[in-house]
Here is the input.
Amino acid sequence: MRRTNTLVVLAMLGGAVFCGPVLAEQTASPQTAEEYIIWPPDGAVIHGGKLWVRMGLRNMGVCPKGVAFPNSGHHHLLIDTDLPPLDQEIPSDRNHLHFGAGETDARIELPPGKHTLQLVLGDHNHVPHAPPVHSKKITITVQ
Here is the structure.
């Protein structure tokens, strides 16, 4: 049966068809899990724009994308943006950097000015855990 026929059958049976973003199934995380930025500290002044970001995780493990292992995930660095929807796949763009190889530090370059940094942990499918595990947002200045 073709998909269009299936939708017609669902409609005749009283089924509902939804349009819009598909919510992903979320992976559980322990209530005690904490993600944090080790470096740079909140309020840091960075000279030159190139810096290392060191990422920390407590009461969970880090593993690469695609690996579904209990109580584990991989880091995503949010630059100059708010947390994305916490029930959908984390975007991948210049404001949402994925560290799917299991990295716990990264060298980034930012233009002069004030910037915010925040981490959010994603599961094997880049979806935040339930409950979500994320760091506090920090502000740094690049000169």
